[in-house]
Design brief:
Blueprint (H helix, E strand, L loop, with lengths): L2 H13 L14 E8 L4 E15 L2 E9 L11 E6 L4 E8 H19 L6 H12 L3 E11 L7 E2 L2 E7 L2 E20 L2 E16 L2 E12 L3 E8 L5 E11 L4
Antiparallel strand pairs: 1-2, 1-13, 2-3, 3-4, 4-5, 5-6, 6-8, 7-9, 8-9, 9-10, 10-11, 11-12, 12-13
């Protein structure tokens, strides 16, 4: 990326720093997590990268790509979007119909170009995708609102996502969400004042379903600091802890 463009994006992010948001707003920042799987007794390093930061009207939008355990709902949750509309709420979208359609369109174009390298008619390419999309039903959004003025006991709204392409049907949802409160957490990356939330995440494709119980800690201007994945009986299955923040060099 050209230095001038990078500086422009950095200034755009800094201009919104007066608002409190539960995400990192510096494009190119890498967040490193130590992920422990207690069942498999493994430890690995996962990364998240801030891939885009921009304004849409009065809303600051941050796109973060996750690799490894943090992609909780599969490939379609590889990217998380944060929307900061005001100085109190950050809307964290884990999965949405809009993003899935964008992702599928990119995959479609890649495949089309490989099969038809000499084709340049964009309208023709788009028509083929539109015909495919007529067979697809996709709706909803799985999200969590993170609020600076949240209080212990506050309930998080339920949210759902549906994908249907005969004979395949996939659903994802977040339910039974609760704000536990604010808590100071110290990791290798530093000491953070975190908003602690818990919720139930459910993923189902065809006849296979999985339900996990998540507890997560989020810090302002950082994002996720720690997460715990538990069974219904409370057994910890996996944890992810922020161990390093690597900012891009200018």
């Amino acid at each position: 990326m050209k230095k001038t463009l990078y500086l422009f994006m950095l200034l755009a992010a800094c201009s919104s720093a007066v608002k409190a948001q539960f995400c990192n707003t510096q494009k190119g920042t890498l967040l490193y997590y130590e992920t422990r799987d207690t069942e498999k007794e493994t430890v690995q390093t996962d990364t998240s990268c801030i891939v885009d930061v921009y304004k849409s009207g009065d809303t600051l939008i941050v796109k973060q790509e996750n690799r490894g355990k943090r992609a909780e709902f599969g490939d379609a949750a590889e990217q998380i979007t944060f929307r900061c509309d005001n100085d109190k709420t950050t809307r964290m979208t884990l999965m949405s119909a809009d993003y899935l359609k964008e992702m599928m369109y990119r995959y479609y174009l890649d495949g089309y170009h490989q099969a038809n390298p000499e084709e340049t008619d964009e309208e023709k390419m788009k028509k083929g995708f539109d015909e495919f999309m007529e067979q697809l039903h996709c709706e909803g959004e799985v999200y969590i609102p993170l609020k600076t003025d949240a209080k212990a006991g506050d309930k998080l709204p339920e949210s759902k996502f549906l994908y249907k392409l005969k004979p395949i049907k996939m659903t994802a949802s977040v339910s039974n969400g609760t704000v536990i409160g604010f808590e100071t957490l110290t990791t290798e990356a530093g000491t953070f004042n975190c908003l602690k939330v818990s919720y139930q995440a459910k993923y189902k494709i065809m006849f296979i379903s999985e339900t996990t119980y998540m507890t997560e800690w989020y810090a302002e201007n950082v994002g996720l600091v720690k997460s715990e994945e538990r069974t219904k009986r409370g057994k910890v299955m996996a944890t992810s802890t922020l161990v390093r923040i690597e900012k891009p060099s200018i």
